[in-house]
Design brief:
The complex is a heterodimer of chains A (113) and B (110).
Chain A (H helix, E strand, L loop, with lengths): L4 E3 L2 E4 L5 E6 L6 E8 L3 E9 L2 E5 L6 E5 L5 E5 L8 E8 L8 E2 L3 E5 L1
Parallel strand pairs in A: 2-11
Antiparallel strand pairs in A: 1-3, 3-8, 4-5, 4-9, 5-6, 7-8, 9-10, 9-11
Chain B lengths: L3 E4 L2 E5 L4 E7 L5 E7 L5 E8 L4 E4 L2 E6 L4 E6 L8 E8 L5 E3 L3 E6 L1
Parallel strand pairs in B: 2-11
Antiparallel strand pairs in B: 1-3, 3-8, 4-5, 4-9, 6-7, 7-8, 9-10, 9-11
Classes of the chains: A mainly beta (113), B mainly beta (110).
Amino acid sequence: KAGVTQTPRYLIKTRGQQVTLSCSPISGHRSVSWYQQTPGQGLQFLFEYFSETQRNKGNFPGRFSGRQFSNSRSEMNVSTLELGDSALYLCASSYSTGFEKLFFGSGTQLSVL
Amino acid sequence: SQQGEEDPQALSIQEGENATMNCSYKTSINNLQWYRQNSGRGLVHLILIRSNEREKHSGRLRVTLDTSKKSSSLLITASRAADTASYFCATDSNDYKLSFGAGTTVTVRA
């Protein structure tokens, strides 16, 4: 089985731009969650989707949004980028409705200049 | 804010030695999990312990959970160079997310 695939692997943007990150979960996994990882704040939860429904959202401004498609693939979008948005964005998928084991992608490293 | 705090922040040991790291959390949990992350990559699930369990083993890993103290420990025995990584505890509180601790960076010296 292929693992969780995140694209692109690296991204460089400038302040004020917007960005879309993509995540393809493991086949058959219906839950997709997103995390932001920075050296200062660690791993922060962004949002979680199950069967196209957002079930939880972390404490991030409205500039951060996401969605999930009927094939379970997910995208997250960040508008009006700020320097502080520079981070590793990780996507994870799981098979069940619970959170007993997450499978992570390798992440998208976003640099905002 | 993070649910968990990990201790120590960093650990350096000799190959063959044991590594122990601790995790404390704030709210009641469904289960607690440990993940490993190699530099700049995604996290890999290591082991899960449920709230009604006290100890669990998997290969060279031993996890304990004390729900009265809201704490857990991860022991890696007979460490190898390949164990060099960051280790994170994560708690599931039935709120559709995992909350991660700050992580412990382990360096295993040859």
